[in-house]
C-alpha cells in the first residue's frame, strides 16, 4: 500500500510562476482581457478606494488588505496548475452568468444601502464569476482555496459580532486578571474593565473580538495550505487548535497592554505601543502555531516509529499457539 509521502510525491509538480513571466502574460492578454480589466476597475474601483481609506485602516477590519493580497498571491501561485487543468483552449461555463448576476446584485445593494458585508462579498462573487466565464468550473476547482480564503474578508453582521464578542472579552478579562493577580500585581476587574493601580483599561473588541479570532484562523489555514501536510489528523487537529491558540494570543496581548500602561502610563498604552501590541498578537499566534505544529509532527513520527513492525518495540509479541495480538492504539 502506498504511503502518504509516496502519494504526495506522485502529485504533479508545476513550475512556480515568475514576475517577469506574469508581466509578459498580462501584456499578451490585453487584447482579449481589456474589457474585463476595465469593467472590474469601473465596478470595484470605488469599493476598494472606500475600503483602503475607511474600513481597512481601522482595527476591526484591518486584516482585510492582508487577506486580500494573500489570496491574490495564492491565485498567482496556482495559475500554472490552472493552465494545465483547462488546457490551451479553455471553455467557459454558462454557470458564470447567474453567479455574475448575484455578484452584481450584492454590489448594487451594498453600494446603495451602505451595507459593507454585501459590498465586500460582491468582490469575491464577481471574481469567481469571471473565472467561471473565462476558464470554466475546472479552473474554479483548482482555485477553491484562494476563494474560500477570501471569505474571511467579508464582515459579519454587527449583531452577531457583538453577541459572540462579549463572552470572549469576559473570558480574556477573567484570565488576565487571575494571571496578573497570581504574579502579585494590584489588579481587579468589573466586567470587561480592568483596574490596575491607578489605571482603568477597557478590553475592547479589537483586543479580544470575533474578528481577531477569524483573522488568526485565516492565517492558520493559510499556513496549513502552504505546508501541505500529508497527515489529515495533523491538519484537522491544528485547524481546531487555532481557536485556543488565538485565545491565548489575545490574553498575552491584553496582559502586555496592561503592563505597558501600568509601568509607562496611559499615553504609552494607548499610543504607539497599542498598535505594536497588535503585531505582538500575530507574532505570538504564529509562534504558537509553529510550536503546536512541530509538537504534532513529533508525536506523529514517534507514534509511527513506535508501531512500525518488529524490532521497534512498539508492538506485542505473539503468544505461542495463538493468533497475533493487535497493537493497542
What is the secondary structure topology, with strand pairs?
Blueprint: H1 4-10, H2 19-53, H3 64-86, H4 96-113, H5 116-135, H6 137-142, H7 144-150, H8 158-182, E1 187-190, E2 193-196, E3 199-202, H9 205-208, H10 210-227, H11 232-264, H12 266-270, H13 272-306
Helix pairs in contact: 3-7, 4-5, 8-11, 10-11, 11-13
What are its keywords?
329 residues; mainly alpha; 13 helices; 3 strands; 72% helix; disordered N terminus
Outline of the structure:
The protein has 13 helices and three strands, in the order ααααααααβββααααα.
Strand order, sheet with most strands: 1-2-3
Strand-residue fraction?
under 5%
The secondary-structure element order is HHHHHHHHEEEHHHHH
Structural class of the helix and strand makeup? mainly alpha
Question: What does the radius of gyration come to?
Answer: 25 Å
Q: What is the helical fraction, as a range of percent?
A: over 70%
Give a count of the beta strands, DSSP E runs of length 2 or more: 3
How many DSSP helices?
13
Mean pLDDT across every amino acid position: 81
Please give the alpha-carbon distance between the first and last residues: 20 Å
How does the overall form come out from the CA principal axes? globular
Query: How is the main sheet built?
Result: 3 strands, antiparallel
Q: Would you identify the regions where 5 or more consecutive residues have pLDDT less than 50?
A: 1-10, 309-329
